[in-house]
Amino acid sequence: MLRLFKIDNGLIKEMDSQREDLPNQILKADWIDAHEPDDDERDLLELLLHTDIPESDEVDEIETSARCFVDAAGIHVHPLFLSQSEGRHMTLTVACILQQKHLITIREGDLADFRLLRMRARRGHVECRSPAELLVTLLDQKVENHADTLEDIHRQLEGVSHLVLEDDKSELEDAIGKLARLEDSNGKIRLCLMDTQRDISFLLRHLRDRTDQTETLREIARDVETLMSHTTFLFDKINFLMDSTQGFINIEQNQIIKIFSIAAVVFLPPTLVASIYGMNFDVMPELKMGLGYPWALFLMIVSGFAPYWYFKRKGWL
Q: What membrane topology does the UniProt entry give (predicted)?
């Protein structure tokens, strides 16, 4: 699917794409957003814009030389974006090709950053004067989304912190699952921020003659540094809560083992007494005593109560 946008009086506006006039509209568009393009759309873009449209496996390569480079078609940047599905975060790579008159984005899957940018464009809230400035705006939107997501993770961590440290009736196993998901989300955001740092550094080298864009890129870089520090703080908090949760689980398990250990010690002396008088020897004077049975019961009760009293006095119970 192709979405076309045009810069009009300093604002980015979405064009009404007509299938029969699509080639002319592509040439007039300042931003071509190719969302899961089919083979015909890929061929058309390659023909009109004189560039190769990368496949998804080419976009996902991790080498810096494959993610940020310049060729005859323009400046190529493949930033990582954050996506969410079924309550879990994942990363998706978007291929961005910056030309003199066009910005081309090729992506798989729906991304919140692009939805929000389209919504803001429809309301006339996206100021833009060139495709290069639009690319910088897209990166700025991406970083703002990461900041909002980090704030949401922090709020969820506060809830888990109350669950672990203050709620006596909480299920600690559930807290471990929540912490694992939050740690995974925080790690993916940090990965996206590190990728953004690399993209900004690359663009600063190749857009140095465009003062407005370079200044905005430097501001974004400072925001990224701040968010990187925040992810480190969240990692430390998650690790603390994870260690605390495992510690509380170990304490609960130790309490259970303690109960079984004390029960075994308490019942050991009565068992010994019962074993002695259960032996079948001919010479056992107590067997002929009239009060032999009550005497054996008394010994078992006393021998069982004695260790219990001792443990209670020591404060072990």
A: Multi-pass membrane protein
What pTM does this model have? 0.77
Over residues 274-301, the mean pLDDT reads 79
Here the tokens at position 72 are: 């005859």
**Per-residue b or e along 280-313, where b marks 16 or more CB atoms closer than 10 Å to that residue's CB:** eeeeeeeeeeeeeeeebeebbeebbeeeeeeeee
